[in-house]
Design brief:
single chain, alpha/beta
Length: about 350
Amino acid sequence: MHGVRPFGFRFRSAVILSAAAVAAVAAVAGVLAGAPAHAAAPPALTIYVGQHEQMARLTIHAFEKKTGISVKTRYADSAELGDLLVDEGSRTPASVFWAENSPQLMRLQKKSLLAPVDEATLRQIPARYSSNRGDWVGVVARENVLTYNPKLIKQSELPASILGFEKPKWKDRVGIHLTSVDIMPLIHAISVEDGRPAALKWVEAMKRNARLFQSSDGVQLAVHQGAIAVGISNSYYYYRLREQLGRNRIVSRVQHFSHGNVGGLINVSGAAVLRYAPHPREGQKFLAFLVSRQNEQMLASSDVDFEYPLRADVKANPQLRPFDELQPPHLTVEQLGDDSEALALLREAGVL
């Protein structure tokens, strides 16, 4: 239980001092009164982090160095942390939640567990990438893509639509982490764009045709090694594997969806100060640093993070296709919801 502990006051019995002693105490007090007071150290800030740890550590280290505020972190899957925050409610030790994708933030917003973000912070990011109620702010984004092994399949054979994988010819040739927090927004996006029956049909087809992996990293490695011809995931995982293997050694290639096809969905990662944050002021400072030019430029220029900065004045890592050249579907974070519909479709299809 993380409650607020009352301060304890302990009274001592009175002591009668001699006049000389009183004078001595007064003299010492006079000296101390002229001495500068030492500022209290800022409190430690607890952050629940659902984002990739390599990226988060860069940001948190830079924040601590700049502000002098120490940070305690809890890393886990965003959905797991969302469940935890709902369970903890007003007892949470966390002041900030940094999520991998927007649905978990939307879930907490609906449950009134988020605090308003400072207006100055919200203004740093285009409004369409943040909560329309101002309860959380977008930080970075990722694009859904196909990766393929050119030794097993030609680029021209890839479907133009994500729905093309429903055909029987893709049996055991495509891989996906179907229950990941990256793919659930895609499932819901199909439901929004093409209707719920179409989304259910796609999930059932993926269950039937695809090799189901337990991680998107596993999907990318399988494509590179030739275990499957095509993988579906965020582009982040491909570029991270390419960096690990070497740009001249990786076999697989990226294929972008175009013309607004739902397969090219953009996922937004954002952060919020919690309604019951023990240290809301420091939490707001962390959000402001997250979306600062310093932080987004640092992430964009590193080779541990391959996500798109959402500040208009910061260019993405040059390995990525420029953000303004992407052709995603025009869906808002509100339309992508809170993953509840995607979970319902996965259960109905017998995946969960």
